[in-house]
Amino acid sequence: MSTNQVTTLADRIDREFLPFVRKPGRYIGGEINQIKKDLSQCELTVALCFPDIYEVGMSHTGLAVIYDCLNSMDEVAAERVFAPWLDAEKILREKEIPLFSLESKASLKSFDVVGFSLTNELCYTNVLNMLDLGGLKIRSGDRDEDDPLIITGGGMSNCCEPVAEFIDVFVLGEGEEAVVRLTQLIRVCKKASASKREILSSIADKFEWAYVPKFHAGRKLRNAVVQDFDNAPVPLAPIVPFVQAVHERVSVEIMRGCPGRCRFCQASFCRRPIRYRSVQKIIETAKACHRATGFDTISLLSLSSSDYPDLEELVAGLHAHFHDKHVGLSLPSLRVDRQLKMLPRLLTSVRKGGMTIAVEAASERLRQIINKPLKDEDLFAAAEAAYRAGWQRLKLYFMVGLPGETVEDVERIVELSFQLAKLRKGIDGKTGQINITVSWFVPKPHTPFGWLGQKPKSWFEQARQLIIEKKRELRAKFLQFKFHDINRSILESAIGRGGRNLTDVIEAVWQAGARFDLWDECFDYELWRKAFEQSGIDVEAAAQKQFAPEEILPWEHLGGPDKKYLMRHLEEANIRN
Within 13 Å, how many C-alpha atoms sit on residue 83's CB side? Predict the structure, then answer.
């Protein structure tokens, strides 16, 4: 592996690029708390790429953690690269300016390693686009010895076969310790003048959490796990963005893993075991981050915050320090159970805009199937307690298309929301305002439901119409429904459980112009449908594909729980239809 020549583009960017883009703040760098080293003096340089715009990437906690981990290493520099929006891409291509990092304005090719966070099945076209804008061939087999290693992490690494021919290494599981060990090995190999092939072979041999497609020998890989979570690295001086980010707040992860086992949830089954940060560590982290940023909200992150064992003590401690500083507390991911009834009166410092509850299924029968044993009585008790504590509205999440679902279950979504809104009447005489988000069930790899096919598109369309008609019938103007894009959910199912037969599809749809598929103004389902068709695949049939129990699954070797364990869960679901 050769040492790459650092090409900085600051002058060209200032003259030829920034004056012509709509939001230059996305591309200038230099924010408070950024870390900038002299790339030419470092043994290893890493471009941390996020396949979405600055405002989204700067809200991603995982990116901030890896940035901090790498830059805390002597002789290693990590810099950020975000996907340029359409106006910026046009200028980069017209003026032949390669994609560059924010800190040093160095071209992507200047780095030893280019790393991507794979957050969703529909970010893949942006990954290819960023490689291409950086002057790199998109397929690993076509890249040269002098080109950077392309490494990815994030949830999609556990089901990455559709993009395996584009990437050199996939890091499975948790990244804090894995990226440090990986970086150390690459540095040693680089000093020994090892070839790229030798480096990749060493990575495949040494780490059971590293999937190197070129050297995979068929063994089942394991997810990387940070055992000592309390002392896991956390940024104490997060970067303060120049452009308002999606989530502009201090984010502290309070626990990892989830005691629940919702059978549709990949994170629940892949992020194990359950580990907690101590109250003291969380409060110290929140204080340090607030001092370094001035953000006015502390967000406590986890898959299920109400399961944090010392939540009452934690909230009281944060309130004691922050209540007179006009800093609010945000507690996402609250699970409704008997404990939640206590929370609204505890959270005097939480901003009272709305309380979010992921109900998922409207009937208790369906909740049993998905292994979310929430009782209606607990849900009503929690909503009532929230109203009494001053919450103005509720936000509810439901999923349609779950295994065993009936038409009655779909209509029940509206009826249950209606009842929860009317519940407020007995408290202050007003009707509750409820925002309801409806998503479409996507069977995910490494879950008990991963073997099942997705419901047909017609079922989702019928369900959406049923919900709209039921709301009209109840004259429930106080219920605001928002529906996910059905076509996107179809693609998530088709791609997420696909194999290398989708490589050509993803390349073809990118070449046809697909970009920012998670953005409504850019997403074009017809481009995807045609690309699937050109490869002889019906995208909707792929989404609805049901795998046989004995079938070898495209993601089977990529971490995750034991197959027999997941099959037992599926049998216990006792799905009738």
Answer: 25
- Annotation: CATH topology of 231-499: pyruvate-formate lyase- activating enzyme (3.80.30)
Q: Number of helices and strands (H, E) in the chain?
A: 21, 15
Residue 72 φ/ψ, nearest 5 degrees: -80, -10
Tell me the pLDDT of the chain averaged across its residues. 92
Residue 264 has pLDDT above 90, yes or no: yes
Domain with CATH 3.80.30.20 in the chain: 231-499
| Token pair recorded at residue 128 | 């290819």
| 456, pLDDT greater than 90 | yes
Which residues are CB-contacts of 285 (< 8 A; sequence separation ≥ 6)?
A: 234, 236, 252, 277
Range name among 2-16, 43-57, 468-482 with the lowest pLDDT average: 2-16
What was the pLDDT predicted at 319? 86
CATH 3.40.50.280 residue ranges of the chain are 10-215
10-215 architecture in CATH? 3-Layer(aba) Sandwich (3.40)
Q: In the structure encoding, which two tokens stand for residue 343, read together?
A: 């929370």
Return d(Cα 259, Cα 274) in angstroms, integer: 7
pLDDT at 245: 83
pTM of the model: 0.95
